[in-house]
């Protein structure tokens, strides 16, 4: 029997609320999204440091057995609600980073809690199946009702797994198998291939490559890491495939003032990419690209760039893999960020994770495995995570997709207001950019960026960093204009005090 659910309620104010500046960002737009009842009204910080004394003690203890230098603070999930996270010391923060972009409905969303308190959810939590061998009865129907409902056009199959690195890495294997199978003429493996692969030698182990882009982030497992190019610290001391890297456009902002320069920059990157594919000593079987490079610093390119890139992949027989691990599931204002490109020729493979909770990739029919046990593992994802995705999808589709409309309304308001602030504080922020609520701006230096992120935490906001000097917003899909307005107040009050 399940215990009665503990109600998650606002914690009572113990100290003075934050003293905030008056809002100066125009009218707060209306959202079609229904407000979350019982959400905190505002952040409230009750300790002089974050983590506070309780958090510090627990983190120090954790540090005896695990790396702790990356920890922001400890989360009290039971007390957190909606867009507000409560830490171990009772501090309430407005969360606009949401566990690195992976909390689509915020904390303790009533629909999520309801779905997880069912008999089905208990069964799935109690028995994590080996999905490739013994899937639960509802696995197939649920896949059809959920993931396949949002599968990009023409991508008729889905592989599921546990996380983004695994999704990308299995996508690379799929691209390589597709590439070789075409050349083999869809014939059975030869004896020579079968024997040589056990020695990691050709022809069974072919020399093939996956092309990625400067500043890309595609994960940290060995194969995925070979395509990750955002920061040296991810890669140092780890063996990597000798795979090619192409330039990703470095656009200049504001976009409407640099139309010619940006078009030239994109043309340069496209032509270099094609040159690399044609001349690389190791044949390129696939290329992978994020619709917006996230970890690498929220770097954008135009739909035209991506359309031309897709054509280069097609013309050169290279699998075109789109990494929607961070951009996917509605935050950019489309369900998939790549929908904005208006492709005639859809990607070959689209990978997902984070906000979908379950990870994996969609692929075309011709990328189907030629034999079983080629891409496989014990769990191949988790039906409990698929159940979470079902809840998320239902929420997104509710009330004529009010949540998606909310993302666009809130995102436009936040982005426009940040642009106003950038005019007022040009020494602290520039190049505001984004789609939906997937927004970022740059600080002049890494030190300024870090001091903004640290200072605003003590004023009650959990904000994200990326690249060398960027600040990124990855709020939940229930982040509404009123939350954006609250953020803007706290933000201006924070940066106006920075030296
Ligand atoms: O650093 C990681 O492994 C998480 C990366 C990520 O997705 C991000 O920071 O955007
Ligand atoms: N790529 C790591 C991001 C995590 C963090 O900002 O804390």
From TrEMBL:
<dbReference type="GO" id="GO:0030170">
    <property type="term" value="F:pyridoxal phosphate binding"/>
</dbReference>
<keyword id="KW-0808">Transferase</keyword>
<comment type="similarity">
    <text>Belongs to the class-III pyridoxal-phosphate-dependent aminotransferase family.</text>
</comment>
<dbReference type="Pfam" id="PF00202">
    <property type="entry name" value="Aminotran_3"/>
</dbReference>
<dbReference type="GO" id="GO:0005739">
    <property type="term" value="C:mitochondrion"/>
</dbReference>
<keyword id="KW-0663">Pyridoxal phosphate</keyword>
<dbReference type="InterPro" id="IPR015422">
    <property type="entry name" value="PyrdxlP-dep_Trfase_small"/>
</dbReference>
<dbReference type="GO" id="GO:0009450">
    <property type="term" value="P:gamma-aminobutyric acid catabolic process"/>
</dbReference>
<dbReference type="GO" id="GO:0034386">
    <property type="term" value="F:4-aminobutyrate:2-oxoglutarate transaminase activity"/>
</dbReference>
<protein>
    <recommendedName>
        <fullName>4-aminobutyrate--2-oxoglutarate transaminase</fullName>
        <ecNumber>2.6.1.19</ecNumber>
    </recommendedName>
</protein>
<dbReference type="InterPro" id="IPR015424">
    <property type="entry name" value="PyrdxlP-dep_Trfase"/>
</dbReference>
<keyword id="KW-0032">Aminotransferase</keyword>
<dbReference type="InterPro" id="IPR004631">
    <property type="entry name" value="4NH2But_aminotransferase_euk"/>
</dbReference>
<dbReference type="InterPro" id="IPR005814">
    <property type="entry name" value="Aminotrans_3"/>
</dbReference>
<dbReference type="InterPro" id="IPR015421">
    <property type="entry name" value="PyrdxlP-dep_Trfase_major"/>
</dbReference>
